[in-house]
Automatic annotation (TrEMBL):
Organism: Mesorhizobium retamae
Statement: the UniProt record of this protein carries the keyword Nucleus: no
Family label: Belongs to the class-III pyridoxal-phosphate-dependent aminotransferase family.
Keyword annotations: Aminotransferase, Pyridoxal phosphate, Transferase
Cofactor: pyridoxal 5'-phosphate
Gene Ontology molecular function: transaminase activity
InterPro entries noted in UniProt: Aminotrans_3, Aminotrans_3_PPA_site, PyrdxlP-dep_Trfase, PyrdxlP-dep_Trfase_major, PyrdxlP-dep_Trfase_small
Origin superkingdom: Bacteria
Protein name (Swiss-Prot/TrEMBL): Aspartate aminotransferase family protein
Organismal lineage: Bacteria, Pseudomonadati, Pseudomonadota, Alphaproteobacteria, Hyphomicrobiales
Length: 452
């Protein structure tokens, strides 16, 4: 029995009863366990630890803030770290998105976006607008509101009665379509499905469309054709619908720009952030929105929303230091450059393993997709559990990568590789080498072809 399966007496439970080795400490892109093993974090935890572990500048900023105060309730006091982090983030946002609302995580950030959009509709005399169209598949969080826009039947299934599931359109998996269209035409085709959905639902009932500019947990570093982004914006404008970009995973320099959406001129109306702003130091999330949306809500008596830890001074002091380190260490540039190195390494793996049907991503948000046939992109049968197997084999060899199988089968198993943005060229080579070993063993076990 490996220690992945060892049941140990504990009061804790998460998804299953599977236990993991106990972490002792972490520094840079590495973690060490109590039993003395070293892990290289090829996924930044759940694509969260953007600046790496144990950054001394952030730890010092947190210590300094802790000595002043760790808490002051936002309805009783302003606090300087929240003020400063809001100003910092506002300066990094696209267009007029300069109003920031803090929360404690990604699901809360998504909830906040949905609620602001809805309250804006009420405040502007459009009370019939409540539907938020989402993509299938997609992941936007585990709380009931965020789950209502999450396209993953395995996660939403048990809870359908508890929430109001929202309309969905297919995620733009254009790379897999076998038609005579160019990639750009496919991008337009997927965007046009949004217009068809809006018309079918009744434009007067739709308040927003939510999407990740670059896919994460459900669509694995999915990048749509360029034409998709501009077209989505046009369609939202045509029907007065707000465009929400969920940047919880793709934001904070992860893809080589501050936001994933910054690679295109797609002008979101509301943005959610989390993961990278706390970078594993504190639970922190945020929503950015423009005054044109915030003002009518404030004018009608205020935003009917808030959480105890919103704008927590310790969390915001850490977040501010994280932003400073992103700039000081040049991590946006490094994410882009190391991302190119990583994609090149992954393309080399694809030459060795023809069952890698797709290599994709931007910056240090990348993925490989396993298929039965790289030409037709036909999927492997579900019993070929290659994503989980590669994850386990890599883990046994001290490499962490990210895998989540989404029910419904529009994509093959994918493994996401998304190390901290401080990764060096050498780290990338080490990650690719261990991943290659894991895939070689898995290929043998599943009888899949290997070149050379
Ligand atoms: N949105 C996206 C795009 C995410 O990737 C995640 C987390 N994987 C969430 C929302 C939810 O964030 P959290 O787990 O912090 O609630």
């Amino acid at each position: 029995m490996t220690d992945l399966q060892t049941p140990a007496p504990s009061h804790l439970f998460y998804v299953t009863r599977l236990r993991r080795p106990v972490v002792e400490r972490a520094k840079g892109i590495h973690l060490w366990t109590k039993d003395g093993r070293r892990f290289i974090d090829g996924s930044s935890g759940p694509v969260a630890v953007n600046i790496g572990y144990g950054n001394d500048v952030v730890l010092d900023a947190m210590r300094r803030q802790m000595e002043k105060t760790t808490f002051a309730y936002r309805l009783h006091f302003e606090n300087q770290p929240a003020e400063d982090l809001a100003r910092d983030l506002a300066g990094r946002m696209p267009g007029d998105l300069d109003r920031i609302f803090f929360v404690s995580g990604g699901s809360e950030a998504v909830e906040t976006c949905i609620k602001l959009a809805r309250q804006w509709a009420v405040a502007t005399g459009q009370p019939k607008r409540w539907k938020v169209i989402a993509r299938m598949p997609s992941y936007h969080g585990g709380t009931l509101g965020a789950l209502s826009v999450t396209g993953d039947a395995a996660l939403t299934g048990h809870f359908a009665e508890q929430m109001r599931p929202m309309p969905t359109v297919p995620a733009p998996t254009a790379y897999r379509d076998r038609d005579n269209l160019s990639m750009e035409e496919r991008g337009t085709k997927y965007a046009d499905m949004l217009e068809e959905k809006i018309l079918a639902e009744g434009p007067e009932t739709v308040v927003a469309f939510i999407m990740e500019p670059i896919g994460g947990a459900a669509t694995n570093a999915l990048v749509a054709p360029d034409s998709y982004y501009a077209r989505i914006r046009q369609i939202c404008d045509r029907y007065g619908i707000l465009l929400i970009h969920d940047e919880v995973m793709s934001g904070v320099a992860r893809t080589g720009r501050f936001l994933g959406g910054d690679h295109w001129n797609c002008r979101p109306d509301i943005v959610s952030l989390s993961k990278g702003i706390g970078s594993g130091y504190v639970p922190l999330g945020a929503m950015a929105a423009p005054m044109r949306i915030v003002k009518p809500v404030l004018d009608m008596g205020g935003f009917a929303h808030g959480h105890t830890y919103a704008g927590n001074p310790l969390a915001c002091a850490a977040g501010l230091a994280v932003m400073g380190e992103i700039d000081r260490l040049g991590l946006t540039h490094n994410a882009a450059a190391r991302g190119d190195d990583l994609l090149e390494e992954l393309r080399n793996l694809q030459k060795r393993f023809p069952f890698i049907g797709d290599v994709r991503g931007k910056g240090l948000l990348t993925a490989i997709e396993f298929v039965a046939d790289p030409v037709t992109m036909e999927l492997l049968p579900p019993e070929v559990n290659i994503g989980q197997r590669v994850l386990d084999l890599a883990y046994e060899r001290g490499l962490i990568v990210y895998f989540r199988r989404v029910k419904g089968g529009v994509q093959g198993d994918c493994v996401m590789i998304a190390p901290p943005l401080i990764a060096t060229r050498q780290d990338i080579a080490e990650i690719a080498s261990i991943l290659g070993e894991a895939i070689t063993i898995a290929a043998g076990e599943f009888n899949l072809p290997v070149n050379g």
